[in-house]
Every structure is written in C-alpha cells, then in structure tokens.
Amino acid sequence: MFRFVFTYYILLLTLIAIIFCDEPCPTLDDFLIRSPYLAQFNAHLYEGIWYELAFYDYTQFSKACGCTHLNWTLMTTNTSIYSDDFITICPYEPIWLRKNYTVHMNGTANNKQYPFFIPETGFHMQFNNTVVYYRKNELNNDLYDRAIQYQCKVNQLGKRIFTGINFLSRTYFNSDIERKQVINEMIIAAINAGVEQKYLQELKIVQWKNC
C-alpha cells in the first residue's frame, strides 16, 4: 500500500512539473535589467532570522507545517560561505503534536558580478537561489527587512523542473490583516522583479497562529 501511495505521489509531482515547469528559467541578467539595485546586494545585511510569510513550492504542503523561519549566517572564517537553517513545525495542528524540524543548508555568496545570486545546497539538491527583491530598513542598522528568494532548476535538456519562491520578512506579524497586506505588497514587488505571475497566483500562506 505504501509503495502504491509513494509511486502515485512521484507520478503526481512529475505531472505537475510537466504542466507548470516546462519552460526555461529567467537569467540573472533578466533580473538585473529589471532591478539594477540588485548589483548593490550586501550579504552582511542579509544575515539573521527571516520569517517566511508565503511560498510557492509544489513539493510542500502548506497545511501540514507552519511557523517556518530561516537562520541565514555568513561563516566567520570565510564570509563567502553561508549556512542557512530551515526551521519549521510539523504537524501544525493539533498543537500538542507539534515538533520542530531543522534542515541545515549551505551555499556561497561570492559572485561579484551578480552578488544577489546565492546558490544553495539542501534537501540533497542544489538550488540556484537568487534574491530578486530586498528592502533596506534604515531604522534597523540598515539591515534588509523584506526579501524575495527565487529558485529555478532545469534538466539537461534545458527544461524547467522546479520553481521555488519565498516571501521573507524580519517579523511574521501578529495580525493576519497586516501580514496579508505585506504579502500583497511583496506580490507587486515580485511582479516588478520579473517573477512569473502564474506562480504568484499559487502562493501558499504560511501559518503563524500560536507560534
């Protein structure tokens, strides 16, 4: 029975990939032309805790987990290498069954031509992780307080097989209304950055109640 369910799940993911991902990835120049300020990306201002507000990733189930956040840190011995701890709680409901899960990822932040390109390895895969939008908070030591990460992966034939989008903020907001407003603002920022609207229409909202 388990083998049947597992096979069905793999076939379903493959079908979704074919339907939604059969296209080339945007290039780094595509993002840079739309947002020239990305050339000024500073990895030191990206360090710290990030709370995920929304995401697109057909391999994740939004209702199963919640309270998702990242701890992004440059290595002290080599600041061109970073660690990224992906932390989430599953199951989200019921509360008494909640358990923390952490996935340790790492990557590089040393591309001088495209400093916003921070490729990452995690979940036994390498992702072309790219910061396509960020906002500086002048009231908080100039650290970035909002960011959008975009991942795209193609096969050997140049066909897209994965797309990932993460809306990140330095706070997860106590108010659902305020969180939704910020997400809407970030959707506009993502469109301006060149993120495809068809993926943004499928965003999943991260659950933060009672986190």
Overview of this protein structure:
The protein is globular and about 50 Å long. Strands 1, 2, 3, 4, 5, 6, 7, 8, 9 and 10 form a 10-stranded antiparallel beta sheet that branches. It is built from 4 helices and 10 strands; from the N terminus they run H-H-E-E-E-E-E-E-E-E-E-H-H-E. The model is unreliable at 1-21 (pLDDT under 50). It is 23% helix and 35% strand.
Q: Could you say which overall geometry the principal axes of the C-alpha atoms support?
A: globular
Distance between the first and last residues' Cα: 35 Å
Q: Counting H and I runs of at least 4 residues, what is the number of helices? A: 4
> What's the order of the H and E elements?
HHEEEEEEEEEHHE
Any guess at the CATH architecture?
Beta Barrel
Organism: Rotaria sordida
InterPro entries: Calycin (IPR012674)
Signal peptide: 1-21
GO molecular function: lipid binding
Top keywords for this entry?
ten-stranded antiparallel beta sheet; disordered N terminus; 23% helix; lipid binding; Lipocalin; alpha+beta; signal; 211 residues; globular
